[in-house]
Write a structure and sequence with these properties.
- 63% of the residues lie in helices and 1% in strands.
- By secondary structure, it is an all-alpha fold.
- Helix 13 runs antiparallel to helix 15.
- It has 20 helices and 2 strands.
- The N terminus is likely disordered.
- Strand 1 and strand 2 form a beta hairpin.
């Protein structure tokens, strides 16, 4: 009986749920009707694409716009939407539609899926998430469709507007522009750039934060979590934009040929999209190494908890910085907005960060073996992009070997469901220690 309970733990159900969705999506992408050549994708490429879509990454081994039929593109779009919001959110939606009561077990799964601190009001939050998603994706699709209608037939423009709105709100980064060009032809277009930036940012701050901001007029208060997320997100956005602007200012292949407004828009977009979105308006392979390293750091930090994005998360980053700063100042506690961060949170932040670093380093090491001859920075960039479910690429993904594709598939999956969730899913339920050892001291630094 204990083994059965362990098997049905929420983390394990979430891992298995994502795996089943990926497998089902991959099988659909192997159908002849899914691709323009009428042969379907190979199973390996189908698994890679389905994993990238469900884990809202955006790394692709084949060009989405030219390889897939509308059916194939809609399959990918469905996987993006399910993966971005979480399959438990969709299960809750169907329960609403059927008038079914949400059980305690389903509420616990929802809490785990949304990474919420409390189960209180979790069903109401899930319902509001669906409303937020519909409103925001519609608000993004309309201006994109209007802008695209200047370059293509109106029907195609509407379809492109809907696809790119859903893809970018869920921080997936899949595009239909063709030939792996992403949104580079709109680098200095304010409508496309600002709309997509808005979608990525809203998708990346997390639904818990979005809900608190929505209720602020009534409650007149924001939680510590929301304050930290908003503060850190703004800080990373400004640092990323300014950094890319000045680093790329003299680059003939990126910002230098653009007008001042184009330079600002291009820098802003790459700063925003590095936070797990995957679309790009500048050719990533043409960026200076200094800019690529800055983007790697932004990718690793990623979005915020309970969002459609990946990475170690903004709150993890800020918690660790706070802990380091407290130690430097000789303070015992980490204080944010006159509130003390408990040690359990600091340990968890450290565990998540070390787990992420370990996964990126192992993936990078193995890729240097399987993809021998490739530039090291390109491999590190790809591994970080996969872990943080970003989707930005320097062009390595389409050239990956079969083993390399397998490594990236695992890294994307682990990055989406979380290293900690996987660790908890494959181990027995943790029991409290029966006794504690005496304290020991070691030298640090």
């Amino acid at each position: 009986m204990p083994h059965k309970k362990s098997f049905l733990d929420p983390p394990k159900i979430l891992v298995l749920g994502f795996a089943v969705i990926i497998l089902f999506g991959a099988l659909l992408l192997t159908l002849p009707a899914s691709t323009t050549n009428g042969q379907g994708l190979s199973f390996l490429n189908a698994i890679f694409t389905a994993t990238s879509a469900t884990c809202v990454t955006g790394l692709v081994v084949v060009d989405t716009g030219t390889t897939f039929t509308m059916l194939g593109q809609l399959i990918i779009l469905s996987l993006i939407q399910i993966g971005g919001l979480g399959f438990m959110t969709f299960a809750t939606l169907f329960a609403f539609l059927l008038g079914k009561r949400i059980s305690l077990k389903e509420r616990i799964l929802l809490q785990e899926s949304l990474n919420n601190l409390s189960m209180e009001g979790i069903v109401r939050l899930a319902r509001r998430i669906l409303i937020f998603t519909a409103v925001i994706e519609t608000a993004g699709a309309v201006p994109l469709a209007i802008r695209f209608s200047l370059d293509m037939p109106i029907g195609k423009a509407i379809y492109f507007g809907i696809f790119h709105s859903i893809s970018n709100f869920n921080n997936a980064g899949f595009d239909l522009m063709g030939e792996f060009h992403s949104l580079t032809s709109y680098v200095d277009d304010p409508t496309v750039t600002l709309t997509v930036c808005m979608l990525i940012t809203l998708g990346g701050i997390g639904f818990i934060v979005m809900n608190e901001v929505f209720e602020f007029r009534r409650s007149k208060r924001l939680s510590l979590h929301t304050k930290v997320v908003l503060m850190t997100s703004l800080f990373l956005l400004v640092v990323g934009t300014i950094g890319i602007f000045f680093l790329e200012l003299s680059n003939e292949k990126t910002l230098k040929p653009l007008s001042l407004s184009g330079k600002v828009l291009g820098s802003l977009f790459q700063s925003v999209t590095a936070r797990t979105a995957g679309a790009n308006t500048l050719n990533i392979g043409d960026l200076w190494h200094s800019s690529l390293l800055l983007i790697i750091i932004l990718m690793f930090i990623g979005a915020s908890p309970g969002s459609t994005g990946g990475g170690i998360k903004t709150t993890t980053f800020t918690t660790l910085i706070g802990a380091v700063w407290s130690q430097i100042r000789g303070k015992e506690d980490v204080i944010f907005y006159r509130q003390r961060i408990v040690y359990e949170t600091i340990y968890k932040a450290l565990t998540v960060t070390i787990s992420g670093l370990f996964l990126v380093m192992i993936t990078t090491f193995l890729l240097t073996i399987t993809e021998s001859g490739k530039d090291f920075l390109m491999i590190l960039f790809e591994a970080t992009s996969a872990f943080a479910t970003v989707g930005l690429s320097m062009g390595l993904t389409p050239e990956l070997s079969a083993v390399g594709k397998g490594l990236i598939i695992f890294t994307m999956f682990a990055g989406r469901v979380g290293p900690l969730t996987i660790a908890f899913a494959v181990t027995m339920r943790r029991n409290p220690d029966a006794f504690r050892y005496p304290k020991g001291k070691i030298m640090i630094g």
